[in-house]
Amino acid sequence: MELLVGTSPSWAITIIRITLGVIFFAHGAQKVLGWYGGYGLKNTTAYFKSVGLPLPVAYAECFFEFLGGIGLVFGFLTRPSAAAVIIVMVGAIATVHGKHGFFINWELTPGKGHGFEANAAYIAMAAACLIAGGGALSIDALLKP
């Protein structure tokens, strides 16, 4: 149980956790619920399948983002939530962003996508949560034995 909900009392990790959680909740809500201009679960998974992802992986990607984001916002099962974010970002680098190099395409050059710069930052934030746990103001801290 300590491995799942153990946490440091750090306010710094709390800021990282909540920020990362909001980002992933918003992107997950686009994919799962169609909120914030998203396409919803049916259309998102159909697109992922059309570009070669197996359907179970497409569903896992959507729910890892959505549920991982919720878990991080509330600091509930922070470590598994952070692991879900890392898995999604490694997959995004492997399938989409890695071929475009490191940098974000700030100039929006046609035909060139964004590199993995942001993905690397998200992985680092999630790794910090994976190591430290939920920090202050987390459900994990309340559940800690």
Record keyword descriptors for this entry.
145 residues; mainly alpha; 7 helices; 68% helix; 0% strand; globular
Describe it.
- The chain contains seven helices and no strands.
- The protein has helices at residues 2-5, 11-33, 40-50, 55-74, 78-97, 117-132, 139-143.
- α2 (11-33) packs across α3 (40-50) and α4 (55-74) crosses α5 (78-97).
- The protein is mainly alpha-helical and 145 residues long.
- The protein has one domain.
Task: Give the number of domains.
Answer: 1
User: What distance lies between the first and last C-alpha atoms, to the nearest angstrom?
Assistant: 8 Å
* Rg over CA atoms: 16 Å
Give the CA-based shape: globular
Helices and strands, in N-to-C order?
HHHHHHH
Estimated helix fraction: 55-70%
What percent of residues are in strands?
under 5%
- Count all strands and give the number: 0
Blueprint (SSEs and pairs):
Elements: H1 2-5, H2 11-33, H3 40-50, H4 55-74, H5 78-97, H6 117-132, H7 139-143
At a glance:
The chain is an all-alpha fold and 145 residues long. 68% of the residues lie in helices and 0% in strands.
